[in-house]
Amino acid sequence: MMEQFKNALFYTVLGKYSIVTVQLLVQAVLSRILTPQEYGIVAAVNIFLVFFQLLADFGLGPAIIQNKDLDHKEVNAIFSFSLYIAFGLAILFIFLGYPMSVFYGDDVFIPISRILAIAVFFYGILVVPQSILLREKNFKLVNITTVIGASVSGVISIILALLGFSYYAIIIGNTAKAFTLFVVFYIKTDTKISLKFSWAPLKKIFAFSRNQFLFNFINYFSRNLDNLLIGRYFSSSALAFYDKAYQVSLYPNQVLTSLVTSVIHPILSDYEDEKDRIKRVYLRISNLLATLGMPLSVFLFFSAEEVILFLFGGQWGGSVLAFQILALSIWIQMILSSTGGIFQSGNRTDLLLLSGILSTVFNVTGIVIGILMGQIEYVAAFLVMAFSLNLIQANYLLLVKMFQSSLLDFFKVLIKPVYLALMQVAAFWLLPELPLNIFLSLLVKGLVFVSVWFIGLLITGEFKRLKLELQRARAMK
Length: 477
Known about the structure:
Blueprint: H1 2-30, H2 36-57, H3 60-66, H4 72-104, H5 109-125, H6 127-135, H7 139-162, H8 168-188, H9 200-233, H10 236-268, H11 275-302, H12 304-312, H13 320-327, H14 330-345, H15 349-372, H16 376-402, H17 408-412, H18 415-430, H19 438-460, H20 462-475
Helix pairs in contact: 1-7, 1-10, 2-4, 2-5, 2-9, 2-10, 3-6, 3-9, 4-5, 4-6, 4-9, 5-8, 6-8, 7-8, 9-15, 10-11, 10-13, 10-14, 11-13, 11-14, 11-18, 12-13, 12-19, 13-16, 14-16, 15-16, 18-19
């Protein structure tokens, strides 16, 4: 298993870092060309695009990865089903622009929906080929293709933005990305369309895919209701400022957490009946993510202004306070993002669904309270509170219900990371105001963060433990 993890992790690291680098470069350029209002329109329509991607997936992807008994003919039947679903959803998305224009009070969503319908179709039909590659543990191809797709999207978006295409630049770029991913995944798998449709393969994966789909469906609303309501009751600019802050708060997940979480299910699905093994892996992952995430949350809290203005320019100052608040939840989101793969690996999507329901209740309550208080900063603050409650309930379901263990096992792995975070708080609290420009100030604070974190690792003994883990990994080659 460790050899599989190392191989998967290598290509995932390569892919994720490359993707984040491409995304940051593209966003840095586009944010200086397009206005917050234009970004707000894209953020508003993306809410619905993500929802249709969820409907197109239908829980099929994880179900294909989990079920090792599906033969080639059955997979083709599932692919045919996904093709019909994707086509129907694309047609529906074309007409979605009309109610969207009424909801947001802007007719611009009518032509936008016609373009994005193409993206909906291709995102829908790439699910099965991509899942086949992941089931075969072909992480190299998946990650390289994803980087290519992000690069194609970025280049097209920048060129069109410079030519004056406004928000259409991002929309067309996203569509090009979906097309690129599908073409490569389809060519690299022996997937074929079966005109004779069969329900038997779908019945075979129904229980798993149903719970997975319901979780995704519920989780969608808990993760996107904030953008939906801000876009409806505030302004496009307010939505853009909030969305930018939220997206930046997700970058640590993309850079750090997703390196591990994206390979958890494909690898651990082979050990479905070995709950103790899965538990040990989860606790080690949680400790590692907390060791990285807690100090990082503190650093980003104290460096919020430098991060936002350096990345996107002076017109995005309205995102600073919201990002500063959301930064406090980064370590929580990092750990939470790993729980889904653990539930799936233990074949407990019923508990995953329950966790999703509880998450939705907490998140929606926090978002609504924040909206009623009338500022994006309040939405961010109450969302951080909701994430904290979700960390507790998700780990209760994992440790107590799935592993038949104690919640204390989870909290024990957080003790030393808390010490590391407190050291960062003390360092930045004592750091004087720096009479430097944005870049130099960020550079100095970054050096302080790295230095204090390294010292903290030595003091707490985490450096020795991490070194030992690395030696064990090398010994298993």
